[in-house]
Design brief:
Elements: E1 35-36, E2 41-46, E3 50-52, E4 58-66, E5 71-74, E6 79-82, E7 90-93, E8 98-102, E9 109-113, E10 126-129, E11 140-141, E12 148-149, E13 159-167, E14 182-185, E15 192-201, E16 206-209, E17 215-223, E18 228-231, E19 237-245, E20 257-261, E21 277-285, E22 292-298, E23 303-324, E24 333-344, E25 347-349, E26 354-355, E27 358-360, E28 365-367, E29 373-376, E30 395-398
Parallel strand pairs: 1-3, 2-4, 3-5, 4-6, 4-7, 5-8, 6-9, 7-10, 8-13, 9-13, 10-14, 13-15, 14-16, 15-17, 16-18, 17-19, 18-20, 19-21, 20-22, 21-23, 22-23, 23-24, 23-25, 24-26, 24-27, 29-30
Antiparallel strand pairs: 11-12, 28-29
C-alpha cells in the first residue's frame, strides 16, 4: 500500500575531491597516503588509510574493522553489499579511527544486503566507537562488535556520514544482542552526521550509547523495534527526524516505539544524564495491524527536550501510549513544545514530569489514493528533506 521503498540509484563516479552543491559541508579529506582498496571483498582489519571507490561494487563478507589510527574514506555513489544470513557481517570503526562516508543527494552511499529477496536482519550494520563521555564508564565494551568506547573527549571526531543509506540490518546474535542500523558508542560532537536513511532494520534504526554526536535529517522506515533510541548519557541534538512504520511491514518486537530514551537502567542518577534535544520530529504509524507501544518513551533518568513533534496514527493504525515517562527502573522527564497528535495515538502515561501540552489536530499528514503524502508545513519533520532517498510516493508540504 503506502510503502516507503528505497530505490538503488545508478551510481556514477564522483571523486571525493570534486565540488558540487552537496559538498558545502565537506571539512574532512583523506590524507595523501590513503590508497584504494585492492579487490572488492571487505573483511578483516584495516590498519592504514584507505579509500573505497564508487567504480567498484564491494562485498562485505564478514566483520570489517577500521582500527585505531586508520581512516576509511568512501566515495560518493559507492554501493556495499553485505553477505546475508550471518551475525558476523558488519562495518566497525574503533575508538581513535575515522570513517569518512560523504555521499551526495544525487550519489548517496548505500549499504545493503546481497540477498535476492532481502529482509530485515540480513546482516549486522554500522558500529562506530568514540571517546566522548558515557555514564557506563570510560572503557566500556560495545554491545556488539566488541569495541571499547567512552572517555572524556566530548568534542571527539569519528569522521563524517553524509547521504548514507543503510538497509536490511539488525542481525540477531542472541536474545540480548542485536545490531542496529547504525550504532554510535560514545561518539563525539566533532563527528558530522547528516542525511541518513535506515530502512528495514531488525532491531533499532539509530541508537546512541552515550556520547554527544549531533545528527540532522535522519529517516527510519520499517524498523522492527525502536526507530530512534538512546541510552548511557547521550547529550546530543537530533534535528529533523522522521520515523515511519508502513502498512504491510508486520515484523515487530513486543514493544516497538517511535522513540525510546534511557539514561541508565542500573542507576538513573549516573552522570552524565541523558539530556538530548530533539527538534522537528514526526513519528508515523501507517500499519493497522501493529500498534506502536509509545510514540515517545522517555525513562530511566532521561531528561529530554523536544520541540515541534508530530505523532500520527493514520487511518486505523494506533499507538498504545502517546508519551510514556513511567518506568520501574526510573522515570524520565520531558519538556515539549509545539507538540501535535493526529489519530488514535493513545494517552500519556505519566511517571516523571511532562512539561508542555500536545494539541490534537486532524491535518498534520494525509495520504491519498495515488500514494501522495501531504504534510503540513511547520508541523513535525520537513519530509521534503528526504526526497533524495527516492521514497516510492511523492511527499508535498502545504502551508
Amino acid at each position: 500500500m503506502k510503502a516507503f521503498k528505497q530505490l538503488l540509484l545508478v551510481a556514477t563516479l564522483v571523486s571525493i575531491f570534486s565540488c558540487s552543491s552537496d559538498d558545502d559541508n565537506r571539512t574532512i579529506d583523506p590524507g595523501n597516503a590513503a590508497k584504494p582498496i585492492t579487490g572488492n571483498i571487505l573483511i578483516g582489519d584495516l590498519t592504514e588509510d584507505a579509500i573505497l571507490s564508487a567504480s567498484i561494487e564491494y562485498n562485505l563478507t564478514g566483520s570489517f574493522t577500521v582500527k585505531n589510527g586508520a581512516t576509511l574514506t568512501i566515495e560518493a555513489g559507492t554501493v556495499i553489499k553485505a553477505k546475508s544470513g550471518g551475525t558476523d557481517v558488519f562495518l566497525a570503526v574503533e575508538r581513535g579511527a575515522k570513517l569518512i562516508a560523504k555521499g551526495t543527494s544525487t550519489n548517496p552511499i548505500k549499504f545493503t544486503s546481497d540477498a535476492t529477496s532481502p529482509e530485515a536482519g540480513d546482516w549486522g550494520g554500522i558500529v562506530i566507537a568514540g571517546k566522548a563521555r558515557s555514564n557506563k564508564g570510560t572503557d566500556v565494551q560495545s554491545e556488539v562488535a566488541g569495541l571499547l568506547y567512552g572517555g572524556t573527549e566530548d568534542s571527539d571526531s569519528s569522521g563524517e556520514l553524509s547521504y548514507v543509506i543503510t538497509e536490511y540490518t539488525g542481525a540477531k546474535i542472541n536474545g540480548e544482542q542485536e545490531f542496529n542500523g547504525i550504532s554510535f558508542f560514545g561518539v563525539g560532537s566533532g563527528t558530522i552526521v547528516n542525511n541518513i536513511v535506515v530502512s528495514n532494520g531488525n532491531d533499532d534504526g539509530i541508537e546512541f550509547f552515550g556520547g554527544s554526536v549531533n545528527i540532522t535529517n535522519v529517516y527510519c522506515a520499517n524498523i522492527v523495534d525502536d526507530m530512534f533510541d538512546w541510552t548511557g548519557g547521550y547529550t546530543g541534538t537530533i534535528t529533523n527526524a522522521f520515523g515511519v512504520r508502513n502498512d504491510g511491514f508486520d515484523a515487530a518486537t513486543e514493544d516497538p516505539r517511535g522513540i525510546e530514551g534511557d539514561s541508565n537502567g542500573s542507576d538513573a542518577t549516573a552522570a552524565p544524564i541523558s539530556t538530548p534535544t530533539l527538534k522537528n520530529v514526526t513519528i508515523l504509524n501507517l500499519n493497522p495491524d501493529i500498534a506502536l507501544k509509545a510514540g515517545a518513551e522517555i525513562r530511566r533518568g532521561t531528561e529530554a527536550t523536544i520541540t515541534n513533534i508530530l505523532f500520527v496514527a493514520y487511518g486505523s493504525a494506533s499507538f498504545g501510549n502517546r508519551i510514556d515517562t513511567n518506568d520501574s527502573k526510573g522515570n524520565g522527564t520531558l519538556t515539549i513544545s509545539n507538540a501535535s497528535a493526529q489519530g488514535n495515538v493513545g494517552d500519556d502515561k505519566v511517571g516523571g514530569a511532562i512539561t508542555g501540552t500536545v494539541s490534537v489536530i486532524t491535518d498534520g499528514i494525509s495520504v491519498t489514493a495515488d500514494n501522495t503524502v501531504t504534510a503540513k508545513t511547520g508541523v513535525g519533520a520537513d519530509l521534503t528533506a528526504f526526497a533524495w532517498a527516492n521514497q516510492s510516493f511523492v511527499v508535498t508540504m502545504l502551508n
